[in-house]
Amino acid sequence: MKPCSVLVARFASFILGVAGCLYLSGCRADPAPDAGFVTDPSLMTQEGDLPFDDVWLKPGVDLRAFKTVYIAPIDTTHLLKQDWWDKVSFAPGDQQKQAQILATYFHDRLTDAFKADDRKIYQVVDQPDRDSLIIELAIVEVVPTKTWLNVIGYAAIGGISEGTTAFEGRLKDGKNQELIGEMKDREFGQMSLLNISDFSWCRHSEHTIKIWSRDLVKMCYRSPGKTISSMATFTLRPW
Fold first, then answer.
1. CATH number at residue 110
2. How far apart are the first and last CA of the chain?
3. Is 0.85 surpassed by the pTM of this model?
4. pLDDT grade for 113, boundaries at 50, 70 and 90
5. Average pLDDT value for the chain
6. Is 93 left (phi over 0), alpha (psi -120 to 50) or beta?
7. From CA 158, how far away is CA 110, in angstroms rounded?
8. Is 237 within a domain?
């Protein structure tokens, strides 16, 4: 076998080995503690056919029956306490500032996801009306990728340290403000062998938010019994 072919074969084996280890170890983030944004956490349970840690949807409610969708400004007042944050002197701004930036990003990405969907069941509105599905979300945790750990980790084992992001959410009926759904999720940033976004503080959070936006739209359009897969823990994308 030519030297080049040997290197390719070894690299492919390494990739498959890392991916296999990640798959077997179940490298999903543990659910975040309740942050106080959802109305009744006791209603939520793990649902294997939805991609979030815990979910509750009112029995008999068809989310596809709504004609408009209102996405409320994303809340950042329920952040879980992170004592270590203040000790990181080179962090670009405090946790609240980073969360607010991500909140705007989340609102924009979710709005884009609804507008881009070909089914066009919902019209996105700036104010809720009687026909609106109201979506209220809160970013409750932002643990950004720590560059200095990434560098050490990459040099030592060829891997990358990932941050975590968590949200809580509520769904309401615009007709009477009745609570018809709750959900929460916490995700690691996707792991990769060498990922440019691993060396920035919150790029992984942005990627997670894009997936959450996509999955929230899918949940609203979901037919009974259809499964929406969870976010993969590993990727070969370089950014």
1. 3.40.50
2. 32
3. no
4. very high
5. 77
6. left
7. 34
8. no
